Amino acid sequence: MFNIAQTEILAVAVITCLAVLSPGPDFAMVTRIAVIRGRRAGVWCAIGIGCGVSVHLTYTLFGLGVVFAGEAWLLTTLRYLGASYLIWLGISAFWPDIKARMLGYANESASDGGEPASAKQADGGSAFWMGFACNALNPKTMLFIVSLFSQVVSPRTTLGAELGYGLYVIACHMAWFSVVAAFLTLPIIQARIRRTRRWIERVVGICLSGLGVKLLASG
């Protein structure tokens, strides 16, 4: 039989895994960056996603999570910021096409399967901050963390245990999305998608913009 502490640990572990594995902006973001920019950028994005969660964990562990979640104006502001960011990311996926049309030259990557223009901008720093902002500005991540620590974690749980839970949540995000990035950049996968990278970026861009619009409409 499980005691209360073991039950709590199991609940946190299962709920976190289910939340991380569910498709959302994080998955779309890592997919786009890994496919277009490569494994290193994809892993940096995964690290950024995990660090973005730490923003919500920090104020929640200080006891401010429930207060923030109850402030309608704060949730609305975060929702607008998060939605605007996702829509901007989605539109940016079409920037090479827009630039090609504006300047009147053909997009080579769309025709010959070469590296798209966005791949030339790859660097770990930008990928990290894109992943960080994706979660730091996501009101659903905020509500998940607040709900986890207010409804699943007991008020009697020690601060040390709560910190352990927080590190586990961060590690799960980093590990899972690093696995996604690694899988999408396997040679056999890259060989299959080499000629369709631009289309993948476009589709993911549409998904990101769609998630942003959905987030706006959810209010």
UniProtKB/TrEMBL annotation:
Electron transport is among the record's keywords: no
Location within or outside the cell: Cell membrane
Main location: membrane
Transmembrane residue ranges: 44-70, 77-95, 165-187
Keywords, alphabetical: Cell membrane, Membrane, Transmembrane, Transmembrane helix
Top-level division of the source organism's lineage: Bacteria
Membrane topology according to the record: Multi-pass membrane protein
Keyword Transmembrane helix: yes
Protein name as catalogued: LysE family translocator
